[in-house]
Specification:
32% helix, four-stranded antiparallel beta sheet, 238 residues, alpha/beta, 9 helices
């Protein structure tokens, strides 16, 4: 494992071992322990009481963050006919059908963050699933990225405005960005509450015991700050 640098060690020392912080304390400490010169992303890491080996216990859903993530989201839409211009007018960066599919397939074009498709395009999009899938770019009904042409404008606006897809990794942990460090504590708190509400709403019926086991806040390259999971969940109820 790579040795941590002096700057990291200095700020990490401010996080008390074995202490579970309140949300307010954690957000303040995340800001205090950031030492990078850019505006880092604030992330939430949740260890869940699920067994990811069972398909029915895996989580994949979306959340609309009230204040977005602070990141410019590049949207590509697979559609045809009049829907192409409608998607572009709604804010899509790229929209089209065969020519976009060929560009991705032959030129390895991946200058986008989210791909949306209308149902009638999925037969063609499936041909490049081997390239989109591993990058998390394959349109999927669970993530709300396969929608009728008439719903494209609304979906594009939601995606650009702060709708985030999340899924657990193979160890049962969620890693979700909830904003930038430059956000106000209130903005980060409201985004966090929206995420927790979405996580609790996505709890699989097969999950047993404690569902949210650990909650950790961190910023890009910063140390993790453990949050009291009971307080984190009760915040989602307010």
């Amino acid at each position: 494992m790579a040795k941590q640098g002096k700057k990291y060690r200095d700020v990490a020392a401010r996080v008390e071992p074995d202490r579970l912080y309140t949300l307010e304390e954690a957000f303040a400490l995340v800001k205090e322990t950031s030492y990078v010169k850019f505006d880092p992303t604030v992330e939430v890491h949740l260890r869940l009481g699920i067994d990811p080996r069972h398909a029915d216990q895996n989580i994949r859903t979306t959340v609309a963050l009230p204040h977005g993530t602070g990141k410019m989201v590049r949207v590509l839409v697979f559609c045809q006919n009049d829907a192409v211009q409608g998607a572009l007018d709604a804010g899509a960066n790229f929209a089209g059908n065969d020519e976009l599919i060929a560009r991705i397939d032959k030129e390895n074009f991946f200058d986008f963050d989210v791909a949306i498709a209308t149902p009638d395009m999925m037969g063609k999009v499936g041909r490049i699933g081997r390239k989109l899938g591993p990058r998390g770019l394959m349109p999927n009904p669970k993530s709300g990225t396969i929608v009728p042409a008439e719903d494209l404008p609304k979906t594009i606006r939601e995606v650009r405005g702060g709708r985030v897809e999340f899924r657990n990794d193979k160890t049962g942990i969620l890693h979700v960005a909830i904003g930038k460090l430059s956000f106000t504590p209130e903005q980060l708190h409201e985004n966090f509450v929206a995420l927790m509400d979405a996580v609790k709403g996505a709890k699989p019926s097969g999950a047993k015991g404690t569902f949210v086991r650990t909650v950790t806040l961190t910023s890009t390259m910063g140390p993790g700050v453990p949050v009291n999971p009971l307080l984190a969940q009760s915040a989602a109820l307010n």
